[in-house]
Amino acid sequence: MARPTKFQPSYCDQVIEHMTEGASLTSFAAEIGVARSTINEWMEANADFAHSVRIAKAKCAAWWEKRGRELAVAGGGNPALVMFGLKNMGAEDWHETHRVEQKTTLEAVDPLSALLAQIAESGRRITDRP
Known about the structure:
By secondary structure, the chain is mainly α.
């Protein structure tokens, strides 16, 4: 028998409020006394909560972007922490890209063509016997 859920509809507003100041979904889980995996289960089971979490993540990313802009203009602060926050909280927009360029030359060997070329080199016809 499954345990009763601790989910409360008020969590929809609370998660947005919590993450608006740059906090993570994991810290929200800790604040309300559940595991992060429970938050994931609630998101799967409750479309309204999942929608609220998407809004909360956007607000969280916006908070980190604002900190980054402030840091860029005024200096001070911890740029590594801001980068970390942006990469993790706004990963769709803030991620490192790596470009890898590879050049390869392939030479396909067709067994029949190779045999015919070998016969042509030796100057024999297929009907000739060695």
